[in-house]
């Protein structure tokens, strides 16, 4: 095991970095998309219900199946990987964003309008900042989940630690196969922990004292 | 009153800065509803006065209020503020010129007190220095120490303090009109009474046009220069001064709404500043207790009142406490019976009963000490007030379309208000 890592540590570090970078970029993209959709639907009960159902049903889609479907139009490579990771990352964030925006006290919004804030300004200066801690919780859930999803997308030759897992599994019983799988799995877990800590720190920094629990 | 420092903090007062409001045939009909929520209401709100909207819940009083700043768009009719028809202008710009206070303040929980208050000036593009100065000035106005409260968050304030910040935020850009929607509904009775007193004190400084919705008739009598009593569909039952509504209810509906204790309502009609206050010995922390003791003995008083550097009462010290102490200490006594000078005799009596004291300390604008009021003063005032009722004066216009104009305009010899 020690030899395996010692011989390949540059390769492992590079794959870890790629894995991490894929997840973070997709997470940012997913947050923007999810908040945008939440903003469009949260005032309408029917639309918000539909969005919530989609996010619940979407999570039941096996990521492996989805990547298989996407390989047909997009081929192997980074594109299907990014689409799959972003799709799964967006679902919990969407759900939390809708809940967060709907849970704001109506009096707060009324007084924002009452002192002359436009709808747009009310949304960006009052509603999203108040809903932010709930949205960020969604981001953290997503981050944990898509760390694993990102390992699966290696099947489509996407970047990251998934390569170690797949190459290990495909020649199970052969030399270094188990070491390869363990390296991939442990690497993913460590990255997930690091990202969670970072998100926790971001939460601390971006949540005003007035709405900290 | 002997403290010369108070004049430096108070603004020049006496100028009406409010604007008149005229609602002309204003109607609000919600889609899918046959009956109008507000039906053809014409109402004149005189500049610089407090007009109270009262009525049972669902009568359209809040809808009427929200149509003044067009949070609710009227179906038809016109809203004219200071001669300018505002029915067609940009609603957001209109609302920046009208203060708006709702229950519990409606503060933004993620912003500090200062940021909350600075919201409207920021939108109007004021400079940072001007905004900072204005925030401090407003916190002083609502009796909150800027040093202490500027950087707090709403959840770190009591209900009453939140409400005060709400008022400060509404006044931030010095709007001529202030709209209040059940502003004191969410606080306990004692705090409510204080906030009401404070609102009256603030009003005596700023002289805005205030329109306030309440379901509490006593509150309407206490705060209002004029009271509009609404029935369902915002049908105006009576629009007149509190004195006249109490003396001559226009209909059975009004009579029922006022309730039975109209005789004792005299207690709510007379204010503390209309009766003669007793002077007393005042002192400041740090003075020698024995000097103060000989002063009150000389003046024949039971106690001395300790004031802070701004003339605000901190505590009372009776002879026994004085003889034990060496120097006067400046700790604040939270149970001190204090009423504002704009409080009603009802409030004053209430405060004394709660504190089991036979007198209460009266404070003026910005909580500055004014004098003492005693149970006996209250009793004499009720007797005198009951003897001299029945004053007539002009009332502003208010009617619903279709109704016959029954508002008679009588020239009275004197008005019921005092400045």
From TrEMBL, chain B:
One of its GO terms (molecular function) is ATP hydrolysis activity. Keywords: ATP-binding, CBS domain, Nucleotide-binding, Repeat, Transport. One of its GO terms (cellular component) is membrane. Residues 21-258 form the ABC transporter domain. Residues 332-388 form the CBS domain. Its EC number is 7.6.2.9. GO terms for biological process: glycine betaine transport. SMART domains: AAA (SM00382). Belongs to the ABC transporter superfamily. This is ABC-type quaternary amine transporter. It comes from Glutamicibacter uratoxydans. The lineage of its organism: Bacteria, Bacillati, Actinomycetota, Actinomycetes, Micrococcales.
